[in-house]
Design brief:
Elements: H1 9-39, H2 49-89, H3 104-152, H4 159-190, E1 199-202, H5 203-213, H6 215-220, E2 224-229, E3 233-236, H7 238-254, E4 261-268, E5 272-279, H8 286-289, H9 311-321, E6 325-330, E7 336-343
Parallel strand pairs: 2-4
Antiparallel strand pairs: 1-3, 4-5, 5-7, 6-7
Length: 348
Amino acid sequence: MIRRKHRGLWWYFVSMVFVNILFFACILSALAYLYLRVGHHTIGHRTMFPPLLTTVLFSLVVGTTISIMVGKKILAPITDFSRAAKEIARGNFDIYLNESHRVNEISEVAHHFNLMVQELRSIETLRNDFVVNVSHEFKTPIAAIEGYAMLLQEENLSKEEHDEYTRMIIESSRQLSNLSGNILKISKLENQEMLTGLAEYPLDEQLRQALLLLESLWSAKQLNLNIELGEQRYYGNEELMMQVWLNVLGNAVKFTPAGGTISVTLHSDGTWISVVIADTGIGMPPKVRKHIFEKFYQGDPARAEGGNGLGLPLAARIISLSKGMIEVRSEPGQGSVFTVKLPVGGAC
């Protein structure tokens, strides 16, 4: 591999100074040579000072001019950096610095500066979307609670109406609780670089427990379960990993119509532990499949299923911290297949 030669900033300055000194030395040498060979015997001793003064003044003028040109060339990018930083401080992230410069260090700084601005722009967009989505998600159940609470104040309510309104208030309150809990969890995990509370436990047994916790949901829809779970121990955060299975399995149950089938398999090839959760549900088009791991994204604009778009992003973050990966295959009307891969060595 041929290493690319980088011309450092220090070398650039050294080269300019060297060329400047060499240029002046050549001029002085030429003038001295002419003076000694041509004008020595005709110009008296008293007349030596004017030519030397002229030479010095000429050198100063040329040296100053070259220094100004070089300094301006070097300081211009720094001035651009200063102006761009001021714009960013004002909240303007539509800034781009020219990355083409003869000095490699300045080009690299400009390149990394542009990357920083791009990342800040993405964070600002994410923050704005987060605020809008959170406001929407909280607004809906709060409005429902308020509306049904007002209806409960009416006189002559039948027992059925009273029970229905109460049930809707409880359901909306539970939705608010789940939403706030998921926001806190995903915010905490996004600021985490590694998992704590690691321990070895039977992964196959954990998957069975997750299915039992969701029994009321899949039994109500009379779903068929195909389960193939070989014995497998895993070293990781048991509580967070349970959240992964509840979210992924919960989605499978939610989007599988009555009488459908959910399959759960667990196997290992010695390097990776693979958990495959497949369903015969409604599936997803490519544009939905592309964004399902983004916060607050929901394929159903009407939010008919009552989700908040945080379950799968939360699961993906936990798996990422566990040094694993999650993949999805899905087509409309053909169900979905989620594959979770975890390292055999665990999250350590």
